[in-house]
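Handout, page 2. Input:
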Amino acid sequence: MLLKHKNTGELLEANIELLSKSDYTKIEKSTEFTFDWSVEQKYDIYKIYLLDAEDNILGLMSLIDIPREQRIHLNLIEVSKTNRGQQKQIENIAGCLIAFACRLAFARAYDGFVSLQAKTKLITLYQTRYGFRQYGNFLAIDQDDAKTLIKKYLSDEK
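Output:
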């Protein structure tokens, strides 16, 4: 998958994989992340990093597989501080993580169904940027919108 350097437009090769035990120490010592990710250890936590800088974690997400409801719940997502807001250096980190969750949901025969519970101020962002829809207290995405995210964020076409 490709991320984009905000200032230069350079495309950067990235990878997403499960967080390793040794990564927890890096995250705890880092000033880049606000959340206590050790609390999420009972779930699947994925990290995104640049292929040429594997030790530099750019973002994290915690996923809960809910087979009885045929969905993946995105429990927590966080982009590193230097890659948030107007001053960010690298773009599309959150989009790649969310698209990866959608791809997992297709792989598990959930039709791309991914849910999350967003903070009030982020609901509009998830709806407009990523195609989520409101279902009670949750936001969710499935099928066509999930496929759109996968194509947009996980396609390696330059």
